[in-house]
């Protein structure tokens, strides 16, 4: 027996050793690539750290990078990495407006249809030059591979993009041509005031054809299977654990980049993030509501408003909710301050319009929200009056409706709060709460199988249109049955308008129709990030859409 | 013995087929799609994506295609990680889970054995009550409570161990300890009960009457017999712990399989859900078989015959 036990222990120890060996801790990956050189590598690593000096930023990401292939990227984590290690014709600037990147100049034909870009001298991380072909190749590959965001090519209005998606034309017919190495010509279906803004989106990044074809199925699966042309390169990528950016010495604007290194760790729990922040392993973390009170007096605490919104969609095909006065009453009766500050308490800001604050400025530099002001703000008594009028108009005496919500904790809290608000402040209202998984909420929402639903939306690009055009008749994001000829025509005019100020005014008018006249939705709150960030960390640039951050201009104050 | 193996293998395959079938069809009940950003997905995009990934075909056909691929050991590609195979995802995730799991089981069993034996041998003494108290505490307090407390005190306050992340062996200590609490408690309780029972058996009295030393009696007769039920329980427990535990992995930011499994279900990553389920059940069945064989080694009264 003793002997057997000894053998058993030996076996277990062997298994542990085997598992340990296969465990790819941090440095393991490099060791695998170059067997026998681990010691050298460690030395290299430590000297590199010394060189980096204090210019090292340590941050957390909430999940693994789903893909490094810009054609297939579809979430903010991938967008953020791509945005920092690559560069397109334009990139998002420090105020989130587009600034020239790989393109040195951008000329537009008189009819606004042909855009000619001249590229600057820039190189990929393997030394080959970035050419106009790299753009043509990547854009056509996006269409041929039906990337998740191929629709961005349609939004940009590139010639034939729509036909290609519908299968009527081949991807090769996309309206983009490399005239020579340095000149890229893009043809549009019609003039598009949003074109430049959209070009900052990661699907418009270039890819080197020779490299991508050589890598085949391995392309973008590991850090060494991608080429970089941005401010940083991805030096290490240990799946599900961490990745490491290093400054790209060959970047054309390398002088503007101060950070030497950015270490990103995958951390999914807020409490874990807080503990790592306390031990100095992270320089910036996101906080959940539970931590806001604890840290709100700290100098390192910040609230950063984001452009994501939470609102209530109301089904206009419902016989009573089809009435604008009833909808207005529901919107008006909600105490949104209470919702944001007491119920959610995570930095969320009450919202009284469809387009959020801190998102878009007019050509004259005034914010959209400021120009249009607050909609449907009033007392509970006024709301009750609207409600009684509306009920009469709809020929009903009382109202029982269901309120659909995803079962995520914050949405649950909102739903319960709204039920209480509606039932106590509006006469004759009964609310049935319906809590379902997120995906099912979406399915029901899209099928119009709800009365009221707590919905969310975030911008695809940095322009109010990403919110406004949701509610055009039969639009895929409409999901309310709403159809207004007046609204549709304003949106259509805005999309065709060349003059930026006139275009902005049309969008303002469209929001007025939506909320002042028709009270289609009840906006609730605008998201915000409550964060802790060390005071020495300066100038992490945040963007409302596409990638979350640009680190190009970030530095550590020493 | 050979017949026994063959028939067990046959049962194993049948069991796996049933699991694959059930998982495949139940999975269809998950609302939503495996595609990212469903909020923005239009009808048309959904159709073309479904077509691209073969999800527009009838479910039965999809099922047979999946089985066909499975026979060629092809588990397919993940939806959520573009271009990555399910094998590579399981491969990179199982290591950390298995390591902390195995350490937890080895340490937990050793500590549990010790605790249980002390308890049984010093029955109704202060030591016995203490270890029973520890066992009850370990059973009733969830492991994440220990994890969070340990992380805060050992990691943040005292800074004896890294609070989280995955960079080397010292990073595995706290997750393993947190997981082992439950193992210690379970093993200790089991051993105590079993040993108390065995201690009262006639053959123990005989062994003592023969004049064997107390040590020989305990090691040769008591512990060996008390171990049999522990082995039964330890097999499945090991698989359960080694294949990953969502909460512990999340708290310590361990890139393990349990966390990935939950994530895949949340985002409808069909191929990964199937792959991990299959992996988990194969392992489970295999371990149950090994446990059955171990019975024969530990207890000669149990014999393995093909007709069973």
Automatic annotation (TrEMBL), chain A:
Regions crossing the membrane: none
Keyword annotations for this protein, in alphabetical order, are: Lipoprotein, Palmitate, Peptide transport, Protein transport, Signal, Transport
The yes or no answer to whether the keyword Lipoprotein is present is yes
Gene Ontology MF term list = peptide transmembrane transporter activity
Any matching Pfam family: SBP_bac_5
Give GO terms for biological process: peptide transport
Gene Ontology cellular component annotations, sorted alphabetically: ATP-binding cassette (ABC) transporter complex; outer membrane-bounded periplasmic space
Q: Acidic residues compositional bias: what residue ranges?
A: 28-42
Residues in domain Solute-binding protein family?
98-477
* Main location class: membrane
Q: Which residues form the signal peptide?
A: 1-21
Q: Where is this region: Disordered?
A: 28-52
Question: What membrane topology is given?
Answer: Lipid-anchor
Compartment(s) where it occurs, according to its Swiss-Prot or TrEMBL record: Cell membrane
Q: What InterPro entries does this protein map onto?
A: Peptide/Ni-bd (IPR030678), SBP_5 (IPR039424), SBP_5_dom (IPR000914)
Q: Does the keyword Protein transport apply?
A: yes
Put simply, this protein is called Oligopeptide transport system substrate-binding protein
TrEMBL record, chain B:
| Pfam families reported in the protein's UniProt record | BPD_transp_1 (PF00528), BPD_transp_1_N (PF19300)
Where in the numbering of this chain does the ABC transmembrane type-1 domain appear?
94-295
Transmembrane ranges?
Answer: 9-30, 98-120, 132-153, 173-191, 226-252, 272-295
List localization entries: Cell membrane
Matching entries from CDD domains are given as: TM_PBP2
Query: How is this protein situated with respect to the membrane?
Result: Multi-pass membrane protein
A Gene Ontology BP annotation from the UniProt entry: transmembrane transport
Which cellular component, as a GO term, is one annotated location? plasma membrane
Instruction: Name the keywords, alphabetized.
Output: Cell membrane, Membrane, Transmembrane, Transmembrane helix, Transport
Q: Which InterPro entries match?
A: BPD_transp_1_N, MetI-like, MetI-like_sf
**Could you tell me which PANTHER family the record lists for this protein?**
INNER MEMBRANE ABC TRANSPORTER, OLIGOPEPTIDE TRANSPORT SYSTEM PERMEASE PROTEIN OPPB
What the record says about family reads: Belongs to the binding-protein-dependent transport system permease family.
Q: What is this protein called?
A: Oligopeptide transport system permease protein
- State the species of origin: Evansella caseinilytica
């Amino acid at each position: 027996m003793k002997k057997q036990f000894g053998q058993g222990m030996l076996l277990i120890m062997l298994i542990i050793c085997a598992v340990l060996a296969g465990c790819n801790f941090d440095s393991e990956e490099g060791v695998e690539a170059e067997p026998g050189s681990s010691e050298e590598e460690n030395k290299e690593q430590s000297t590199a750290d010394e060189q980096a000096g204090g210019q090292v930023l340590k941050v957390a990401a909430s999940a693994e990078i789903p893909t490094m292939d810009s054609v297939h990227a579809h979430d903010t984590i991938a967008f953020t990495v791509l945005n920092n290690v690559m560069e397109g014709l334009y990139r998002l600037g420090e105020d989130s407006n587009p600034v020239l990147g790989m393109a040195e100049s951008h000329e537009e034909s008189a009819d606004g249809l042909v855009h000619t870009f001249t590229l600057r001298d820039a190189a990929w991380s393997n030394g080959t030059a970035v050419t106009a072909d790299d753009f043509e190749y990547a854009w056509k590959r996006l269409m041929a591979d039906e990337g998740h965001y191929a629709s961005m090519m349609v939004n940009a209005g590139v010639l034939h993009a729509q036909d290609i998606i519908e299968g009527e034309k081949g991807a090769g017919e996309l309206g983009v041509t490399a005239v020579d190495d340095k000149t890229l010509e893009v043809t549009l279906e019609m003039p598009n005031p949003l074109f430049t803004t959209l070009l900052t989106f990661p699907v418009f990044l270039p890819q080197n054809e020779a490299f991508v074809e050589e890598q085949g199925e391995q392309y973008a699966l590991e850090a060494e299977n991608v080429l970089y042309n941005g401010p940083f390169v991805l030096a290490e990528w240990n799946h599900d654990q961490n990745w490491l950016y290093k400054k790209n010495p060959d970047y054309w604007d390398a002088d503007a980049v101060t950070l030497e290194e950015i270490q990103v760790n995958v951390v999914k729990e807020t409490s874990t993030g807080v503990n790592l922040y306390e031990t100095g392993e992270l320089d910036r973390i996101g906080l959940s509501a539970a931590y806001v009170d604890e840290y709100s007096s700290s100098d390192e605490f910040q609230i950063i408003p984001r452009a994501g919104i939470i609102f209530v969609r109301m089904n206009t095909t419902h016989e009573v909710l089809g009435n604008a006065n009833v909808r207005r009453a529901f919107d008006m009766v909600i105490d949104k301050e209470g919702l944001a500050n007491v119920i959610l308490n995570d930095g969320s800001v009450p919202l009284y319009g469809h387009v959020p604050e801190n998102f878009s400025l007019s050509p004259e530099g005034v914010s959209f929200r400021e120009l249009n002001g607050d909609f449907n703000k009033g007392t509970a008594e006024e709301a009750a009056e609207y409600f009684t009028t509306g009920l009469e108009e709809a020929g009903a005496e009382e109202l029982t409706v269901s309120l659909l919500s995803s079962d995520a904790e914050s949405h649950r809290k909102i739903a319960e709060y709204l039920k209480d608000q509606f039932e106590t402040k509006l006469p004759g209202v009964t609310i049935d709460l319906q809590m379902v998984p997120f995906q099912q909420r979406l399915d029901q929402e899209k099928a119009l199988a709800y009365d009221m639903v707590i919905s969310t939306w975030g911008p695809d690009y940095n322009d109010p249109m990403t919110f406004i055009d949701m509610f055009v008749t039969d639009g895929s994001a409409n999901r309310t049955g709403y159809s207004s000829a007046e609204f549709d025509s304003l949106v259509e005019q805005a999309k065709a308008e060349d003059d930026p100020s006139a275009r902005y005014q049309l969008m303002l008018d469209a929001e007025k129709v939506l909320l002042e006249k028709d009270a289609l939705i009840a906006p609730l709150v605008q998201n915000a990030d409550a964060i802790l960030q060390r005071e020495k960390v300066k100038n992490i640039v945040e963007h409302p859409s596409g990638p979350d951050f640009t680190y190009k201009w970030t530095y550590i104050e020493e | 013995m050979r017949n026994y193996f063959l028939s067990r293998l046959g049962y194993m395959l049948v069991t796996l087929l049933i699991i694959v079938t059930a998982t495949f069809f139940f999975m269809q009940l998950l609302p939503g799609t495996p595609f990212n950003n469903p909020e923005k997905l239009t009808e048309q995009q959904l159709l073309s994506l479904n077509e691209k990934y073969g999800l527009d075909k009838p479910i039965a056909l999809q099922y047979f295609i999946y089985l066909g691929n499975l026979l060629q050991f092809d588990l397919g590609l993940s939806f959520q990680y573009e271009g990555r195979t399910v094998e590579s995802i399981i491969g990179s995730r199982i290591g950390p889970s298995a390591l902390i799991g195995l350490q937890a089981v080895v340490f937990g069993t050793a500590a549990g054995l010790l605790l249980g034996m002390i308890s049984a041998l010093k029955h109704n003494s202060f030591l016995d009550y203490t270890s029973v108290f520890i066992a009850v505490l370990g059973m009733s307090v969830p492991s994440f409570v220990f994890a969070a407390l340990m992380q805060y005190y050992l990691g943040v306050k005292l800074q004896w161990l890294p609070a989280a992340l995955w960079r080397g062996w010292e990073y595995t200590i706290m997750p393993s300890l947190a997981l082992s609490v439950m193992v210690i408690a379970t093993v200790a309780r089991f051993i105590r009960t079993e040993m108390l029972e065995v201690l009262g058996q006639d053959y123990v009295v005989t062994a003592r009457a023969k004049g064997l030393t107390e040590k020989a009696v305990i090691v040769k007769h008591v512990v060996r017999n008390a171990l049999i039920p522990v082995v039964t329980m330890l097999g499945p427990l090991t698989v359960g712990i080694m294949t990953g535990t969502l909460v512990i992995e999340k708290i310590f930011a361990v890139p393990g399989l349990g966390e990935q499994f939950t994530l895949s279900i949340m985002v409808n990553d069909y191929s990964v859900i199937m792959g991990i389920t299959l992996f988990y059940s194969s392992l489970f069945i295999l371990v149950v078989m090994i446990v059955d064989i171990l019975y024969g080694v530990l207890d000669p009264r149990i014999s393995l015959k093909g007709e069973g």
